[in-house]
Design a protein that fits this description.
single chain; globular; 8-stranded antiparallel beta barrel; Alpha-Beta Plaits; 202 residues
């Protein structure tokens, strides 16, 4: 069962991150086989980490919650807030084989739907799919967040490989779901591959 896990750093937690980084990296490495993507969201200039995203295959929600509870950054107090959602991969890439260009940065789009999001998704799905297919060399992975039953979409996670964040913002200015008001809340973070999950050659 696939999950999107977003964990937020506490303000001014850089020293705690440094203290628990070795344990954190060892913890991530233990979940290597189950991890599709993992890495931190950062400030636009990448000078500070803001939290982390994991797209990960776990048996059930209880396992996802335990995965967060046992995270060294959480145990150490650097991270205290998170969102766990079921997730569906719309394309089958992982950090091992995703499109990526030398010199590009990565970014993470995270959107949560309005109450009428399902209806608007149905109306604009064909245009949404066509648009993102046209940008397949930019989209590393994408897919909807799901309700707990896995029966309906409640948002989206999209990871991008881009020249810069301005290109990402321009891409979403014209994205059909975004333009149609599917989302009630969106963020576009600079993102990077986690240190133990960035071993492939660009």
């Amino acid at each position: 069962m696939l999950f999107s896990i977003v964990i937020h750093d506490e303000p001014n937690s850089g020293a705690l991150r440094d203290e628990y980084r070795t344990a954190h990296l060892a913890y991530l490495e233990a979940f290597d086989d189950m991890t599709l993507f993992a890495g931190p969201m950062t400030t636009d200039d990448e000078s500070a980490d803001l939290g982390s995203l994991r797209l990960i295959d776990l048996p059930d929600r209880a396992a996802a919650e335990k995965h967060v509870a046992d995270e060294p950054y959480v145990l150490g107090g650097a991270q205290k807030r998170w969102e766990i959602h079921r997730w569906k991969a719309a394309i089958p890439t992982t950090w091992r084989d995703c499109p990526r260009k030398e010199g590009n940065i990565q970014a993470m789009f995270y959107g949560l739907d309005n109450p009428d999001g399902m209806a608007k998704r149905a109306e604009h799905r064909a245009a949404h799919e066509a648009y993102l297919n046209d940008h397949a060399d930019t989209v590393m992975v994408r897919g909807p967040l799901l309700n707990d039953e896995g029966t309906g979409s409640i948002g989206s996670v999209i990871l991008l490989d881009l020249p810069d964040l301005a290109a990402g913002r321009a891409l979403f200015d014209n994205e059909p779901f975004f333009k149609a008001g599917v989302y009630r809340e969106t963020t576009l973070y600079r993102w990077r591959f986690g240190r133990v999950l960035d071993r492939f050659k660009v």
